[in-house]
Amino acid sequence: MDPEDDSFTNSDLTESISLSQIQNHVRELPDQLLLLYRAVECTRNGIVITDPNRTDNPIIYCNQAFAEMSGFRIDQIIGRNCRFLQRDDRDQPAIKEIREAIAAGKTITTIIRNYRKNGELFWNELTVSPVHDASGKLINFIGVQNDVSARKEAERRVSEFYSVISHELRTPLTSINGALRVIEDGSAGKVNAGVMKLVKIALGNSDRLMRLISDILDLKKIESGKFKLSLQKVPPVSVIDTVIEALTPVADEKGIKLIKQVTAKHSVVLDPDRVVQILSNLTINAIKFSPPNGNVVLLVDNPSPDSTRFAVIDQGPGIPADQIEKLFVRFQQLDSSDKRSKGGTGLGLFISKSLVELHGGHIGVESTPGKGSTFWFEIF
Ligand SMILES: Cc1cc2nc3c(=O)[nH]c(=O)nc-3n(C[C@H](O)[C@H](O)[C@H](O)COP(=O)(O)O)c2cc1C
Asked: How many Cβ atoms sit within 10 Å of the Cβ of residue 335?
C-alpha cells in the first residue's frame, strides 16, 4: 500500500491517528499480509474469493486446498463462477439457498454435492460470506469449503445399519420370540422339563436381543433429535404402580420385594410411557444388583412444590466414586471387577438420561460402596 496515497489516509484511517502511527501501520502491513496469505495458503479448507462487481461473480483467488479438492489447476479455476463444481447436478435445494443468500448479501453455510475434475462426487460443506470495504460497500464474497464426504459416508452406513436392525433383525426376532413364548406358557402343548429349560434360556436371550434392538432404535431417534414426547398430566404414583406390576415377577424370581413410598402430592406433566421406561430400567438394574431376598424401594416425592423426584433405592454393592461418571455414557461398561455390566446393553442409563433431559429434568446417583445406590431423576 502506498503511504503517499491520499485515499489511504482519508478513507482507511480516522483523523485521530497520528502520523507516526500511520508510518508504523504501513511498516507492519506487509508482515500482516504475509501472515494472512501464508495462513490462507496452508489451511486444509478450500478458500475462494469472488468479485460480485464483475459479470457472473468470478473467482479471483483460490488457495491450494481448493485446487486439490476440485482436482483443477489454479489457472483453470480463476475467472470461473464456483458453480462449475456442480456440473449438471443443479437440482439441489442448497443451490437456491446460496443464490438467495448471495442476492441478500448474507452469510450462508450449507452442504452441497460437487464434482472433482475426474467426475468423482464429493460433499462440500460450504460457507459463503460477504466482504465489505470501510464504507460498507460489498466488494467480495469469500467461500470456505470443507470436504465432508467421509462424514456423509459414515452417516449413510449408520443409517443403513439402523434399517437392517429394524427390518431384517427385529421382524424375524419378534416371531422367534413369540414362538418361544407360546411354548413356554404351555399354549403349544406340554413339553418335558429338559426342553422347557432350553426354551427358557432361548427366551431370555431373545428378550435381551429385543431390548438391545429397541435401545439402539431409541438411541437413533434421540441422537437425530426426532424423539417426541407425548406429555400428559398424571399422578406420579400411577407410573410407580405400572412399574411395580410389570416387574414384580422379575423381582419374585430373586425373592426381592419392591416397596412403594409415595409422598408426592402433585400431578406432574410427563410422558407416562417414557417415564415408565426410565423407572423400569432403573428398577431392573436395582433388582439385578441387589442380593437375593433384599428390598428395592421405588419412591416419589416433591423436593419442592414445583418438582417431582422419582428414586430407586437398592441394597446392592454400590458404585465406587471414580466409576460414577461413566454410568450415563453410552456403551460404557464399568470396570470388569464390578458386575454392573451383566446382562445390560450398555445403553439403558444413557437412554434414561436422554429421556429425562427431553423432559427438561435431570438424573443422578448417590452411592455408598458396600451399602447400595439410589438412582433418582427429577422433573419440574
Ligand atoms: C465465494 C463463493 C464460493 C462458492 N463456492 C461454491 C462451491 O464451492 N461449490 C458450489 O457448488 N457452489 C459454490 N458457490 C455458489 C455458486 O457460485 C453459485 O452462487 C450458486 O450455484 C447459486 O447461483 P446460480 O444459481 O447462479 O448457480 C460459491 C459462491 C460464492 C460467492
From this structure: 12
- Pocket lining: 59 vs ligand 1, CB cutoff 6 Å: no
**Residues 132-160: tens digit of each pLDDT:** 999 999 999 999 999 999 989 888 887 78
Atom of ligand 1 nearest to the CA of 57: 31
In this predicted structure, what is the pLDDT of residue 163?
Answer: 79
pLDDT tens digits for range 87-105:
999 999 999 999 999 999 9
In terms of Cβ atoms closer than 10 Å to its own Cβ (0-12, 13-18, 19+), residue 35 is: exposed
**Binding site membership of 70 for ligand 1 (Cβ less than 6 Å):** no
- pTM for this entry: 0.55
CATH architecture for segment(s) 43-147: 2-Layer Sandwich (3.30)
The 3-state DSSP class for residue 63 equals coil
Q: Taking all residues of the chain, what is their mean pLDDT, rounded to a whole number?
A: 87
CATH class of 232-379: alpha beta
Closest CA to 79 of 102, 54, 103: 54
d(CA 315, CA 296): 7
Q: What is the DSSP string of 167-192?
A: IIIHHHHHHHHHHHHHHHTTTT----
